[in-house]
Amino acid sequence: MARTTDYSSIAWGNPEKTGAAFDFRSDVVTTPSRATLAAIACATLNDDVYNEDTTTAEFENDMAARCGHEAAAFVITGTMANQLALRSLLYQPPHSILTDAHSHIIHWEAGAASFLSGAAIQAVRPVNGRHLTLDDIRKHAIWTDDVHKCPTRVISLENTTSGNIIPLSDMRMIKAWADDRGILVHLDGARLWEAVGTGAGTLRDFAQCAHLTTLDFSKNLAAPMGAMVVGSRRAITALKRIRKGLGGGMRQAGILAAAARQSVFEHFGGGIVCTQPHLIKSHLMAQRVAQAWTNRGGRLLRDAETNMVWLDLNASAVDINSWNSIGKKHGIMLNGKRVVTHHQLCEAAFSLLDVVMDEALDLVRYGSNEERVRKTKL
Ligand SMILES: *Cc1c(COP(=O)(O)O)cnc(C)c1O
């Protein structure tokens, strides 16, 4: 017997159902739309390892063109994109990668730069507290012949970096300086969409400041998975061989490429600037969270420039575990001091966050709920 589909039970396009609507831990929790499911159904189903899949090839070419580069490779995660990019830029140890001390490649990629590329890491703390500048790099990069030193072969920039934008002018100065010394530049653009969304520059502007740029589709763009490495044809050809060697060559990759492509169109747009409202909307949400915190006397660890808010929980003496568990009690997901906003959060989640802030701060003030009730009665 034919049954009509119960759309309310479909997770696609239903952030309330997937939990994304109440989840402030990260933008990776965003889930794909029903149009994305339809896009998957329309994908070609040919073999991408044989270079025969049109959907994947068209998406790669589109991304390369938007970034002003010759070629691109679709990969499964942002981490794989970064590691393949670094591995293809590095030739022979000893070599080192200079990067922000907070960068994803240091803290969140399982140490892969050391075992895949044999690279030493030069972790630099930006003097301005937000992002690396040419001054930071000039001070720490190694490009002389001193045999004691491990030469800097790659500068790895992350934009946005912990939610802060590296301005185009800084990126350009760094690229020009690196070019003069034969140092290559990798741009971890997992959240480059957010920077472009603020109008800080176009995709092409930023991608022109790096030899290889990586882009992630599974953050605030809500693709189920997928990332891209963009660069010269030569570099991408070399990278695709390493991708295959690591088991990252995908057969009917079109189903993932179609989903990622749809996500880019839906939440960013079809060009080199952002033409969809969702990213800006999530930046306004971040400002709202920042305001809610500072209105209660809280301090921020960084400016909320895009979709991340860094709450100085320590300064307010709020314990991280109780912060998370108060969130859970009220039905929202939190992960310590970093609050990430994304376009799938619902209005109710923000009211709940207000309640959580009050309760967490009251707990500090009064020690316990009973004490609070007693004191406020006096
Ligand atoms: C999320 C992210 C990545 C890649 O993460 P995956 O989970 O592997 O897709 C890389 N760099 C930055 C800055 C990120 O935020």
Can you summarize this structure?
The modification N6-(pyridoxal phosphate)lysine is found at residue 219. By secondary structure, this protein is an alpha/beta fold.
Question: How would you describe what is shown here?
Answer:
The protein has two domains: 9-27 and 277-373, Aspartate Aminotransferase, domain 1 (Alpha-Beta Complex); 43-267, Type I PLP-dependent aspartate aminotransferase-like (Major domain) (Aspartate Aminotransferase, domain 2, 3-Layer(aba) Sandwich). The strands form two sheets. The protein has a seven-stranded mixed beta sheet, sandwiched between helices. The protein is globular, with a radius of gyration of 22 Å. Helix 8 (168-180) links the parallel strand 4 and strand 5. It is α/β, with parallel strands linked by helices and 378 residues long. It is 43% helix and 12% strand. The structure holds pyridoxal-5'-phosphate. Pyridoxal-5'-phosphate binds next to helix 4. The site of pyridoxal-5'-phosphate has 13 residues, from helix 4. This is Beta-eliminating lyase. Residues 23-314 form the Aromatic amino acid beta-eliminating lyase/threonine aldolase domain.
Individual helix count: 16
CATH topology of the largest domain: Aspartate Aminotransferase, domain 2
The hetero compounds bound to this protein are: pyridoxal-5'-phosphate
- Which structural category fits the helices and strands? alpha/beta
Mean pLDDT: 96
User: In percent, how helical is the residue content?
Assistant: 40-55%
CATH class of the largest domain: Alpha Beta
Write the CATH homologous superfamily of the largest domain.
Type I PLP-dependent aspartate aminotransferase-like (Major domain)
Overall number of structural domains: 2
Rg over CA atoms, rounded to whole Å, is: 22 Å
Taken from the alpha-carbon principal axes, the silhouette is globular
The largest β sheet comes out as: 7 strands, mixed
Protein name: Beta-eliminating lyase
Pfam families: Beta_elim_lyase
Domain Aromatic amino acid beta-eliminating lyase/threonine aldolase: 23-314
InterPro entries: ArAA_b-elim_lyase/Thr_aldolase, Low_specificity_L-TA-like, PyrdxlP-dep_Trfase, PyrdxlP-dep_Trfase_major, PyrdxlP-dep_Trfase_small
